[in-house]
Amino acid sequence: MSKLRAIITGIEAYLPDYVLTNEELTHMVDTSDEWIMSRVGIKERRILKKDGLGTSFMGAEAAKKLLKSTNTNPDDVQLVVCHSVTPDMQFPATANVIADKVGIKHAWGFDTNSGCSGFLFTFETVRMFIESGEYKKIIFICGERMSGITDYKDRSTCPLFGDAAVAMMVEPCEDENYGLLDSILHVDGVGRKYLFQVGGGSLYPASEETVKKRMHYIHQEGQQVFRHAVVGMADVSAEIMDRHNLKAEDIAYLVPHQANLRIIDATAKRMGLAKEKVLIDIEKFGNTAATSIPLALWDFRDKIHKGDLLVFSAFGAGFTWGAELYRWAY
Ligand code: ACO
């Protein structure tokens, strides 16, 4: 009997309407369109502005569209998994809130949190549920309200991040040539010093002091993260190609985490891929953390065809990093 594979059979996104441009940022901090475009490659990002709405709102909007476009009865969904570094609350899990909002009553679910590599790490987890043979329909959501933890007084981080959510239907496929074919994933806790949001957890519970010291916002030592990300993403992407004896011409597209255009370019160069083979939309959406890879899959859905071999590659807080080989199945 051939091996079951986990395949994405539907993908939908929610993007907030509000567009925060580089021009608007120049009125908030000492920065310029020229600096942001040349150092990072971002022109604008989407921001969820309305009070009282969090990641579950965006995730539920994407999941509602997904149920409709895949013609799925909510009662048939068995598992809801949500990756977020910006869940609605510490608990309960945002996956539960989304399931309730979209009328999924017969599933269980949980959240994951692996920084910007979270799509890769969580897809690998979802793969194992599918390959067990017990799960036929899993909704996998990546959603981030990064604006809620971004310090709009810190010019070194506030141009970087944006908000979005993507919902994917993951199902089994009996043809082992399709779906998630391989993963190489890493963590190295040494990176925790360079990229974190320290306030509000059990180490530094929220207090007047944590608020005063701006500890509830993202802190990043950009150059340190950059150095590790360039090497980590390029190495692991080349490694997955080597492991499968792949040449540049075998790969339809690299779908990278969208944190910095220079990191993406270095990864593509190491893989020997021409620019046309890299799906890049950082200019429009900024860094939406683990949502950025599925957001690019959704954004470029008309370009991707059944049988296309894709490499997903990411680097994020932790440090976490990895690459996955995936053959598009519909
Ligand atoms: N506008 C103008 N000047 C700025 C800005 C800004 N927005 N931000 C920083 N600068 C200045 C700095 O003050 C510094 O000035 P100085 O030389 O006078 O001290 C100068 O620009 C250079 O600053 P660097 O921090 O060295 O800038 P760098 O070229 O490294 O770019 C960036 C910063 C974009 C953050 C880059 O380091 C980066 O992309 N790092 C990796 C990000 C990443 O991959 N993160 C992982 C995923 S995210 C996640 O997991 C949540």
Question: Main traits of this protein?
Answer:
330 residues, alpha/beta, Peroxisomal Thiolase, Chain A, domain 1, five-stranded mixed beta sheet, four-stranded mixed beta sheet, 13 strands, binds acetyl coenzyme *A
Brief account:
The chain is 30% helix and 24% strand. It is of the alpha/beta class. The longest helix has 22 residues.
Q: What this model shows, in words?
A:
The chain has 330 residues and is α/β, with parallel strands linked by helices. The protein has two domains: 5-176, Peroxisomal Thiolase, Chain A, domain 1 (3-Layer(aba) Sandwich), CATH 3.40.47; 180-327, Thiolase/Chalcone synthase (Peroxisomal Thiolase, Chain A, domain 1, 3-Layer(aba) Sandwich). The chain has helices at 22-25, 33-39, 55-69, 94-102, 118-131, 208-212, 222-243, 261-271, 282-285, 292-299, and strands at 5-14, 18-21, 44-47, 79-83, 108-112, 138-145, 163-173, 179-187, 195-196, 219-220, 253-256, 309-316, 320-327. The strands form four sheets. Strands 1-7-6-4-5 form a five-stranded mixed sheet, with helices on both faces. α3 packs across α4 and α7 runs parallel beside α8. The two termini are 22 Å apart. The relative contact order is 0.19. Acetyl coenzyme *A (ACO) binds next to α2, α7 and β12. Residues 31, 35-36, 39-40, 115-116, 155-156, 159, 195, 222-223, 225-226, 229, 259-260, 263, 287, 289, 315-317 line the site of acetyl coenzyme *A.
